[in-house]
Amino acid sequence: MRDFIEPGVIARLAGLALDARTPMVGSVSGRHRSPTRGSSLEFSEYRKYVPGDDLRRLDWRAWGRSDKYFIKEYEADTNLRLCLIVDVSGSMNFGPGGLKEPGKTKLDYARKLAGTLAYLAAAQGDAVGLYFAGQEFNREIPPKRSGAHLKHVLDELGNMKAEGETGLPGILHQAAERIRQRALVVIISDLFMDTEELKSCFQHLRYRKHDVAVFHLLEQNEIDFQFDRPMRFQDLEGVPPMLIDPTTIAKQYREAVQHYLEEIKLMMRDSAVDYRRVGIEQHYAEVLANFLLARKK
Do 230 and 92 share a structural domain? Predict the structure, then answer.
């Protein structure tokens, strides 16, 4: 166990499966739908018999009713690949009240979300991969299924640091090509970038038939902008600090943020992304429980 993996949270979420919304292409039998046909308890459809088909799959009741031969087809069940993409740009060091207090930043919150999802996925036999998105791929661990691999993923999550500018749009395009088989791609970021760039990224991921989910991490002050005296604002991704009187820009700032959030919401909906806006003041167990429940078949 790591300090960002809480046994109480694991126990609470253990009864909730991590399900894919779309058929997955896996390497072993699992709990997720596959685009291919195979053996399963889940009936899919009838099709006409053709010479060479397995006679054990003939539906004799259908033959008795229609005097025609039909084959019963079932959905195959497979495992999924969970690919976690964590934003490690400098803005992920932001915490409550703008402080970089250890254990309470966006990066710490992302670590808890990613670590718990990785643990739950591995426990149900799914493969787990991890990608750190800074200006480029800072770390890339392709998905595998094993206890040793999960340990490696959790070790890397424990050691990750946030610094530098973001390169998330380009990295998501790369991920769409590098993750060659269908996967559940979970992106954890504050998404502070141009929404049009993001839209093309998510459409690329969906074109590659990935099931995409996004946890959009925000701190309440980033939305409310409750500052009432001149302050020095520091850009965590390299731009020089600025001394500003917040009262002169508060109204325009809040309008701009609401416009941005509305654009993000519409873009995610149009791209068929499972979008979750998360305030880092919320307990992450509640966020994950809602995420898992919404994905139940």
Answer: yes
